[in-house]
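tool=predict chain=A
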Amino acid sequence: RALLSTMLMTPPRKYRQVLVINSNDQLKKAMSAGQRLPMRRLEHEVQKAFFLWAAFAKQEFPMLVDMYAIPNGGFRRKSEAGRLKAEGVKANIPDVHLPFPSGGFHSLYLEFKLPKDPITGAKATYANKGQKETHERLRSYDNRVEVVRSVDEARSIVIDYLTKPARVLHG
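tool=predict ok
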């Protein structure tokens, strides 16, 4: 497991630059250097860096090949939003899903949020009441649902999820 930790914390050179967007201090630094991005775009960059890590981590955790993003956020024209809704896209679903049972859970969901707004300093919370209710409902179905605020936190949760011993599910 020591080798695993070293491998997962020291990604190949081509991933290192992307993985730096993982803390609020780094986001503030990037923004003060004139890199102004909307909050949703910053969340996108953190999630993108996480998937780059996951591509590397598939060597140790092959089940990550089935992890995917859920495209339920962002601005869309009314016609496209209507089409997606008709196809079954729902609001309040977490951003990432790993449909692999582990540690007694059926699957893992991750919701990406920034730790706080890099400009105003306001703490990030759930986007709305519906999102929190959806997370609780998914948990009641024996899924693990986590809100993550950095690449490092998401990576730690996935490793914990995939290496934890089984627990007893509800009856």
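The longest strand covers residues 108-112. DSSP finds seven helices and four strands in the chain.
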